[in-house]
């Protein structure tokens, strides 16, 4: 998140321009990576799998039904122990803690019947906090990336052609596992949109599909039993925008006009 908006950096200048023209910016990036029918499932759609599952299922705390609200607290460092005691006393459960210079950030799950007591206690510490009601519990199958075993094996070359057809690119890059060729069979595929090295690390699959990966991560994958297809970071995501636009159009109907940027493209061009 931005701590300030100035004209020093291009992202900040972009946001400042949006603010100047009263344009709201909402980026449901990782949310749409994880949901059923979202970006990850789109990336997996060219393949005929027996079954598909997330590589990294939604965090267990997201499925906890006893908590009604999510709480974020920015507490003065000197009062962090007191803040933690207040949160625990009010039957809330801390799921993450981060130290930020002079502040400590707590993320917690809270019960509705203790909210008033929780707010009263936090006000005594001069903490900044936000409390919002949690959305629907994520259904089974949500999470980062996708893994599946194919109903019938295909060749690496066939897999590459399926991906190229999906993303609309004439060329994509592939790092072949040692001893493999484009005629080698593929029985399982693991996919992560964007930068997938951390999620794919250690996954047993014949083929990894992602947007980008560092040199040494590629070598590790190749020597651990997987060939790797690299699409480019944003090219592994951009093709989903047309489906996302259709989803928004169905949801909002005639009340909102939905369009997809025509000039947006990946910064990398192959020449």
Description:
This is NIF3-like protein 1. Keywords: Metal-binding. Pfam families: DUF34_NIF3. By secondary structure, the chain is α+β, with helices and mostly antiparallel strands. The chain has ten helices and twelve strands. The relative contact order is 0.13.
Topology (SSEs and partners):
Blueprint: H1 10-20, H2 29-34, H3 39-44, E1 49-53, E2 56-57, E3 69-76, H4 80-89, E4 93-100, E5 103-110, H5 115-123, E6 128-133, E7 143-144, E8 146-155, H6 156-167, E9 173-175, E10 185-195, H7 197-200, E11 207-212, H8 215-222, E12 227-230, H9 235-238, H10 241-252
Parallel strand pairs: 10-11, 11-12
Antiparallel strand pairs: 1-8, 2-7, 3-5, 3-6, 4-5, 8-10, 9-12
GO molecular function, one term: metal ion binding
Family: Belongs to the GTP cyclohydrolase I type 2/NIF3 family.
Protein name: NIF3-like protein 1
Q: Could you report the average pLDDT, rounded to the nearest whole number?
A: 92
What order do the SSEs take from the amino end to the carboxyl end, as H and E? HHHEEEHEEHEEEHEEHEHEHH
The name of the CATH superfamily of the largest domain reads: NIF3 (NGG1p interacting factor 3)-like
Rg from alpha-carbon coordinates: 22 Å
Helix content: 25-40%
Shape from CA axes?
globular
CATH top level of the largest domain? Alpha Beta
What would you say the CATH architecture of the largest domain is?
Answer: 3-Layer(aba) Sandwich
β-strand amount:
25-35%
Uncertain runs: none
Strand line-up of the largest beta sheet? 1-8-10-11-12-9
Largest sheet: 6 strands, mixed
Compute the number of strand runs: 12
User: Which structural class matches the secondary elements?
Assistant: alpha+beta
Count of discrete structural domains: 2
* The CATH topology of the largest domain: Udp-n-acetylmuramoylalanyl-d-glutamate--2,6- Diaminopimelate Ligase, Chain: A, domain 1
Cα distance spanning the termini: 35 Å
Number of helices: 10
Pfam family, one: DUF34_NIF3
Binding site for a divalent metal cation: 33, 233, 237
Protein name: NIF3-like protein 1
Keywords: Metal-binding
């Amino acid at each position: 998140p931005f701590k300030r908006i100035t004209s020093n950096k291009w992202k900040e200048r972009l946001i400042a321009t949006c603010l100047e023209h009263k344009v709201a910016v909402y980026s449901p990036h990782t949310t749409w990576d994880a949901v059923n029918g979202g970006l990850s499932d789109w990336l997996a759609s060219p393949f005929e799998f027996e079954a598909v599952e997330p590589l990294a299922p939604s965090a267990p705390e997201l499925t906890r039904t006893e908590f009604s609200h999510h709480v974020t607290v920015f507490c003065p460092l000197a009062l962090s122990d007191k803040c933690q005691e207040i949160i625990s006393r009010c039957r809330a459960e801390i799921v993450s803690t981060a130290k930020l210079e002079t502040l400590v950030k707590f993320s917690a799950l809270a019960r509705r019947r203790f909210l008033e007591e929780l707010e009263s206690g936090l006000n005594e510490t001069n903490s900044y906090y936000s409390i919002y009601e949690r959305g629907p519990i994520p259904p089974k199958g949500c999470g980062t990336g996708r893994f599946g075993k194919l109903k019938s094996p295909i060749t690496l070359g066939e897999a590459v052609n399926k991906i190229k057809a999906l993303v609309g690119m004439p060329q994509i890059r592939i790092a072949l596992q040692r001893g493999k060729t484009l005629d080698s069979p593929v029985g399982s595929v693991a996919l992560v949109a964007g930068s997938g090295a951390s999620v794919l690390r250690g996954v047993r699959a014949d083929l990894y599909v992602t947007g980008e990966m560092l040199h040494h991560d590629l070598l590790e994958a190749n020597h651990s039993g997987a060939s790797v297809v690299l699409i480019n970071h944003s090219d592994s995501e951009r093709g989903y925008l047309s489906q996302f636009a259709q989803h928004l159009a169905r949801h909002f109907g005639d009340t909102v006009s939905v369009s997809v940027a025509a000039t947006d493209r990946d910064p990398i061009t192959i020449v």
